Amino acid sequence: MDAIELLEQLGRVEPADPDVLNRTADALWALAVAESQGAGVSVSERSTVLTRSVRRTGLAGRSASGAVARPRRGRRLGICMAAAAIVILTGIFLLDPLPDRPPSAAAATLLQAAAAASSQPPLPLLGAGQYYYQANIEQQLCVSPLSSGTGVVSYLNPNTHENWVARDGTGSVRLVGDPGGHWLTPQDQAKWQAAGSPQNECSMTSPLLPLTSDAAILALPTDPTELGSLIAEGRINDVGQILPSPGACGKATTSPNQNSPACSINGQFDVVNNLLTSPVAVNKLGAVLFHILSQLPGVELIGTRTDALGRSGTAVENPSSGDVLVLDPSTGVLLETQSLALVENTLGVTEGTLIGSVTFGPISVVNGLGTLPS
Amino acid sequence: MDKADEHLAGRSERDDPAAFVELFWRHGPAVHSYLTRRAGRQDADDLLSEVWLRAFKGRANRQSSDVLPWLYGIARNVLSAHWRQQARPTTHTELSGAFDPWPDADTRLDAAAQRDSIGRILAMLSQDERDVLLLVVWEQLTPAEVAAVLGLPQGTARSRLHRALTTLREEGTANPPVLTCSDPKEA
């Protein structure tokens, strides 16, 4: 090994702590929003902005080995910054026992939603400096093993995710903490108190994060057969990028059968579910994606559900993954995505418990980043 | 020139300041590593925001066509100011702040000696030569990019790099920094 190689080795450093990166992104966001709104923030105010943002995130001085430096939106937006020992789940509701319905009923519902979505007017075109705005409610169930060995405790941590998406698909998200976080049951709180009330890292949130661009999603083909084939081949990842070869699907099949899709049904449902969390993608591809879901075997109709905004919709589920979509078949609008605990869950969450939800608010056009609808 | 960088930087300068946050996620980790190699992890954590907030404020006046060299240039200025404030010699290279690159126990035994040996060679270089060398070896910049970081003509950056590499190779050969770990059975 020569001196240059040694010098290269000496230059190796550990990656930055996600908390450090998040704090700087947070401060930059605050400056960007202030500038967009014409308020202007002088450099001398910088420390105030930083302090405020750190306080808001609740991350100061903490490690967050489980943090996601660049989370994706929606169901997979893993915002709850918890220590490695803490298992994050998503969700809040409890569902009724699942009725046994024929899959064809789900397909019919999805096709009805696809037809309705295709007849909806497109989103209004954005002018310079305008953004699509959508406020989504995400509720997470954070399950933490107690270090005392006395089991696990579950904490509900709701957030509002305010999304601004520009016409090119880029965007930003602001997380607004909801003071309504609470223990799932009185028993959870009692167990936590009995264990000495250890620090509850489940309540940590990160309010300022960039969104993964929707540009790739907007460029996807709009033919259901073509797009469905790409997804089945495992060539579409969950941010909508088309890969040259299979590998995008995180749940590939193990069957050597040449007729089997490279991506499992669960994986396909997962990809479509994630694509549906993009507001501009739903507008452009909603009908296509509902159509693709209708072709997936095993998807079931599970009845009527009320979402976190009080809207009533029809729920379809992929029972093998526990993923649920609540939609309005008459308009083709996706109201909510949910995740159910499977029987394999060993964290003390009972089967059928709905452990995750993202509720999609209406889409508006606003005149600047950080601007709210009037 | 990275087109995505240029696109984001342009947007942030025109009508979408938040595009700068996207730039941060592209290059924030690299800038943090740059700071860590030179100032240690704790100072890097403190200085990262300073670099990026300066960059945000000064983005409209960016001279360099490439974003990353421009950011390294700002980071270098922030480090200089930091060291002045700390009354710390700017010739110091904080190798001790680096991540231990030797995973095996036997090679780790020699790590301190190797670090000292490399540090001795680096100390033989002028600060200008050392800056160019480390930007190439550690940050993987091209000489043209290094020139942009340091505000030098490209030819000057190349000649400094040549001198630094020559010194490193000659001194490294004359005084091999790699120490062998003797086998206790044969001692």
Uncertain spans of chain B: 89-109, 176-187
- Helical region count of chain A? 9
Task: Count the E strands of chain A.
Answer: 11
CATH homologous superfamily annotation of the largest domain in chain B: RNA polymerase sigma factor, region 2, helix turn helix motif
Can you tell me the overall shape of chain A?
globular
What structural class do you assign from the helix and strand content of chain A? alpha+beta
> In terms of quaternary structure, what is this?
heterodimer
Number of domains of chain B: 2
- If you compute it from the alpha carbons, what radius of gyration of chain B comes out, rounded to the nearest whole angstrom? 19 Å
Question: Helix/strand/pairing class of chain B, anyone?
Answer: mainly alpha
CATH topology assignment of the largest domain in chain B = Rna Polymerase Sigma Factor, Chain: A
Task: Give the overall average pLDDT of chain A.
Answer: 70
State the major sheet of chain A. Answer: 11 strands, antiparallel
**Level-2 CATH architecture of the largest domain in chain B:** Orthogonal Bundle
Distance between the termini of chain A: 65 Å
Number of helices of chain B: 9
- Helix percent band of chain A: 25-40%
